[in-house]
Amino acid sequence: QDWEHRQEEDTLLIERILLLLRNVLHVPPDPSEEQGVDGDASVHDRVLWALHISGMDDLLKFLASSQMEQQWALHVLEIISLMFRDQNPEELAVLGQGQAAMEHREDMRELETLRQRELAEKRTRALQRPTRHSRFGGSYVLQGLKAIGDRDVVFHKGLHNLKSYSHDLGKEPRRVPRRRQAA
């Protein structure tokens, strides 16, 4: 709901949910209780994954970026800092770049092969084309359009110029003296 339509109970409920989330993330890790296999996700990581699956991380991003929800900014900031509590910043920065660099190299390789294939096709088309251009566009008879007498019109330009054809094509327009021109 928009903040204008919220009741006092709704505001309290939102604050209680954010405080509960902060308190759950604030629980310190206990290595003696978390005796899992090496590489296994910790309890904190599993809680973060459950938050991601439920869509709560998207709601937190919305609350952090919305101008209308600035009253929750400190709660959201504290929750986000607790989410990254056990993380090493260097590892987080490198984590996303490894896949991005590999994908970038793969995309570049694909683009290069496509470019080479396109150049090869262009070369074969150039070899198949005759080298000398014929300026003769052809002559066409326009049936159903009468010229002088009872003959059909003979059109000497390309077919792409056919739409702009008129009988006055190429004729100099008759000049009207200035004093006889309409006002």
TrEMBL record:
<dbReference type="GO" id="GO:0043111">
    <property type="term" value="P:replication fork arrest"/>
</dbReference>
<feature type="domain" description="Timeless N-terminal">
    <location>
        <begin position="2"/>
        <end position="141"/>
    </location>
</feature>
<dbReference type="GO" id="GO:0006281">
    <property type="term" value="P:DNA repair"/>
</dbReference>
<dbReference type="InterPro" id="IPR044998">
    <property type="entry name" value="Timeless"/>
</dbReference>
<keyword id="KW-0539">Nucleus</keyword>
<dbReference type="InterPro" id="IPR006906">
    <property type="entry name" value="Timeless_N"/>
</dbReference>
<dbReference type="GO" id="GO:0003677">
    <property type="term" value="F:DNA binding"/>
</dbReference>
<dbReference type="GO" id="GO:0031298">
    <property type="term" value="C:replication fork protection complex"/>
</dbReference>
<keyword id="KW-0131">Cell cycle</keyword>
<dbReference type="GO" id="GO:0000076">
    <property type="term" value="P:DNA replication checkpoint signaling"/>
</dbReference>
<dbReference type="Pfam" id="PF04821">
    <property type="entry name" value="TIMELESS"/>
</dbReference>
<protein>
    <submittedName>
        <fullName>TIM protein</fullName>
    </submittedName>
</protein>
